[in-house]
């Protein structure tokens, strides 16, 4: 494993233990903009631990985090794009399906990606051109067609104007696939596609920290990722996300 990737995994694992050991009486939940959009004291503390630790690993890289961006993203240079707790609502509810997501983007291309679920102790990681892995096991997307597929999706809960369109599309997939799933962590949903546990994921709007690491993991596992109109994803702004194996064609 790349030494920098190994160091990032060690840092993320330590932060994951901090999340797992959270004192639930000290969450200090605050509302952010949009419906059901929350931040806890643990989101802020994990982000700071990541900021400090990643600076030690790669001092010349900038840091973009969900809980207060310290550097605006640019198409040139090195950037860590970080979500300290993806699935904050799950974390608040003690639902045990949350993750830490860290991507290294260099000159507008993801080079390293790490996503960790501390509750299952699954460490997903990828390096550009080197494949994707979970706890050392190489990942590959499934080869199942839509009729044998599980579809996972996000409801974009902060954007109520997308509710009807989201569930209409989910229903369209539900009618053609085996079943649908909604987890609450887009980062882990992307890992689910990479691991071949489901075949397609969509969400109509996400931020770069939700998908930067997961996109690389899916692509290194042989999958395809774009926005819902087939365009490359952006790292400087929110966009829709569609991730799938290379068999299924997306529904219009």
Give an overview of the whole structure.
It is a single chain. The chain has about 250 residues and is of the alpha+beta class. The protein folds into 2 domains: about 5-135, Fructose-1,6-Bisphosphatase, Chain A, domain 1 (2-Layer Sandwich); about 145-245, 3-Layer(aba) Sandwich (D-Maltodextrin-Binding Protein, domain 2). It has helices at about 5-20, 40-55, 90, 165-175, 185-195, 210-220, and strands spanning about 30, 40, 60-65, 80-85, 100-105, 110-115, 120-125, 130-135, 135-140, 150-155, 180, 200-205, 225, 240-245. Helix 1 (about 5-20) packs antiparallel against helix 2 (about 40-55) and helix 5 (about 185-195) runs parallel beside helix 6 (about 210-220). The radius of gyration is 17 Å and the shape is globular.
CATH superfamily of the largest domain: Fructose-1,6-Bisphosphatase, subunit A, domain 1
- What's the Cα radius of gyration? 17 Å
Main sheet makeup: 7 strands, mixed
How would you classify the quaternary structure? Answer: single chain
